[in-house]
């Protein structure tokens, strides 16, 4: 190869690279989320509705041998009432349990007779919960999805190939027909164990990753519902590792498949190969996932603490609100959900950063159609962001007000389309606008991710308090895997 040709190829590569990055965007730090994972994370806070045969048998896990006539709602189940109630709490969607481990299906499925069409009254026999739930969600402008248990303690075929092909996959396909706009399908991690299994009364052991042909399940679901994130089986989001409504202060969205979520899910893995953001599931009532007599809902303060420890730590929060035997949420639950919404709006509803003067220590040069200026941090647009030059992995964002403000929380959001980058930061305030001191020093201000909320008094349990008087506030990024990016700074 002659020198002229080598020079020409070099020039061509240079020109192509320049054209490819005409906007001067930072190089992504892999892994990065796909579009359905982005939409899923933006949902942030949504509801679980555990309702089914267990509601009428006082069980959490049915055995699979329950008589279908036991399912007998005292009124027509009303998913729109469920969704209105959780919407008042600030939730953006909900997931309805339409088949739990007992195998009882809340729609007229063709895959099993163990379904609501054989229920104990007309309210049961006329029920098609997936259809009603999807219709209600669209009317309320909310996202929706379904929980369908892969495990089936009723079905005689469970543990055989025929169950996967003729029952489970067909059930997923039936549920997909209720709307291609579903945002999440929930496959519980509990799979295989003791059960009735059509009268066998035995224990069945399976390898869930192999038995369900997970890649085929995931791809089949995506063909029918392209925006669905498949939780559990499918590997698009991970269990945060507990059912207590908290994630680690350090929480990476990268993760490695095969890791034990029970021990590693709360923190993720900085060097993980896959983008697997965490979902934290928790109960809003005190007696179980399904409704039970005498149950009480959480206080607004306790729920807000959960919110700070999940949504405020780069996870999503799915909060279970179980309907009772009437097929409706109890009034005590509805009232408590309203109180949660009022608290969220009061504490995190007015962003003081938008009336501050924002300055930064470094700004990346603009490209053809995109800039990276400090103003992007407070423009309320998720598609704009601030970034530094490539050689800067530390930076400072300073907000200054004309008059002192009472501040209690700082909210940060990375531009995660380019990967999770920030490894360590801290927050400082100034009463006079000149001298600064650190706050929330007892908080592990390590990762940010999609969203991080820092209570400035350092307590998620008693976060509100009297607040701090600040004429200026500074976010100091101490270390980042590559040049840091932020799409929002919020102060409340």
List the defining traits of the structure above.
492 residues; alpha/beta; TIM Barrel; Jelly Rolls; 2 domains; eight-stranded parallel β-sheet; five-stranded antiparallel β-sheet; 22 strands; 25% helix; disordered N terminus
Total domain modules? 2
- Using only CA atoms, what is the Rg? 25 Å
Q: Tell me which CATH architecture of the largest domain applies here.
A: Alpha-Beta Barrel
Number of strands: 22
CATH topology of the largest domain: TIM Barrel
CATH homologous superfamily label of the largest domain: Glycosidases
Strand content: 15-25%
Structural class: alpha/beta
Q: What distance lies between the first and last C-alpha atoms, to the nearest angstrom?
A: 63 Å
Concise summary:
The chain is α/β, with parallel strands linked by helices and 492 residues long. It has helices at 3-20, 35-43, 54-57, 79-88, 122-125, 129-140, 161-176, 208-211, 214-224, 261-264, 300-310, 331-348; strands spanning 45-49, 93-99, 143-148, 184-187, 193-195, 202-204, 229-232, 238-239, 254-255, 274-275, 278-283, 315-320, 357-360, 386-387, 395-407, 409-413, 422-430, 437-439, 452-455, 468-480, 485-486, 488-491. 25% of the residues lie in helices and 22% in strands.
Task: Give the topology, please.
Layout: H1 3-20, H2 35-43, E1 45-49, H3 54-57, H4 79-88, E2 93-99, H5 122-125, H6 129-140, E3 143-148, H7 161-176, E4 184-187, E5 193-195, E6 202-204, H8 208-211, H9 214-224, E7 229-232, E8 238-239, E9 254-255, H10 261-264, E10 274-275, E11 278-283, H11 300-310, E12 315-320, H12 331-348, E13 357-360, E14 386-387, E15 395-407, E16 409-413, E17 422-430, E18 437-439, E19 452-455, E20 468-480, E21 485-486, E22 488-491
Parallel strand pairs: 1-2, 1-12, 2-3, 3-4, 4-7, 8-11, 11-12
Antiparallel strand pairs: 5-6, 9-10, 13-15, 14-21, 15-20, 16-19, 16-22, 17-18, 17-20
Helix pairs in contact: 4-6, 4-12, 7-9, 11-12
């Amino acid at each position: 190869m002659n020198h002229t040709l080598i020079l020409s190829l070099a020039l061509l590569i240079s020109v192509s690279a320049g054209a490819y990055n005409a906007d001067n965007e930072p190089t992504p730090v892999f892994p990065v989320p796909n579009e359905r994972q982005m939409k899923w994370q933006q949902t942030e806070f949504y509801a679980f509705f555990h309702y089914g045969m267990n509601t009428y048998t006082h069980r959490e896990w049915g055995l699979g041998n329950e008589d279908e006539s036991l399912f007998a709602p005292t009124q027509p189940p009303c998913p729109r009432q469920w969704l209105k109630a959780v919407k008042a709490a600030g939730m953006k969607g909900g997931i309805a349990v339409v088949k739990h481990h007992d195998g009882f299906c809340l729609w007229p499925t063709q895959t099993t007779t163990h379904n609501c069409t054989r229920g104990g009254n007309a309210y049961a026999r006329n029920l098609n919960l997936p259809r009603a739930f999807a219709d209600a969600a669209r009317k309320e402008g909310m996202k929706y999805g379904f929980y369908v248990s892969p495990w089936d303690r009723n079905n005689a075929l469970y543990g055989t190939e025929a169950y996967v092909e003729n029952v489970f996959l067909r059930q997923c396909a039936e549920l997909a027909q209720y709307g291609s706009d579903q945002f999440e399908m929930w496959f519980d991690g509990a799979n295989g164990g003791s059960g009735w299994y059509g009268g066998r009364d035995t224990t069945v052991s399976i390898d869930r990753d192999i038995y369900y042909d997970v890649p085929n399940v995931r791809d089949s679901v995506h063909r029918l519902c392209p925006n669905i994130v498949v939780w559990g089986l499918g590997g698009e989001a991970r269990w945060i590792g507990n059912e207590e409504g908290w994630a680690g202060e350090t929480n990476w969205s990268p993760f490695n498949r095969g890791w034990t979520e029970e021990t590693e899910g709360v923190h993720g893995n900085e060097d993980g190969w896959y983008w697997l953001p965490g979902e934290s599931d928790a109960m809003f009532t005190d007696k179980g996932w399904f409704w039970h007599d005498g149950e009480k809902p959480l206080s607004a303060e306790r729920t807000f603490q959960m919110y700070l420890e999940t949504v405020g730590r780069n996870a999503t929060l799915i909060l279970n609100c179980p309907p009772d035997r009437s097929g409706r949420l109890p009034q005590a639950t509805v009232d408590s959900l309203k109180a949660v919404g009022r608290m969220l709006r009061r504490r995190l509803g007015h962003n003081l950063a938008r009336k501050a003067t924002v300055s930064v220590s470094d700004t990346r040069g603009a490209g053809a159609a995109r800039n990276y200026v400090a103003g992007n941090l407070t423009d309320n647009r998720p598609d704009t962001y601030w970034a530094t030059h490539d050689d800067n992995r530390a930076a400072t964002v300073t907000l200054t007000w004309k008059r002192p403000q009472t501040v209690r929380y700082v909210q940060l959001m990375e531009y995660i389309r380019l990967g999770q980058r920030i490894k360590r930061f801290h927050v400082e305030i100034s009463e006079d606008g000149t001298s600064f001191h650190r706050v929330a020093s007892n908080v592990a201000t390590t990762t940010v991710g999609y969203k991080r909320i820092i209570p400035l008094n350092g307590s998620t349990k008693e976060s509100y308090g009297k607040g701090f008087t600040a004429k200026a506030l500074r976010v100091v990024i101490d270390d980042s895997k590559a040049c840091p990016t932020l799409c929002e700074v919020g102060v409340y």
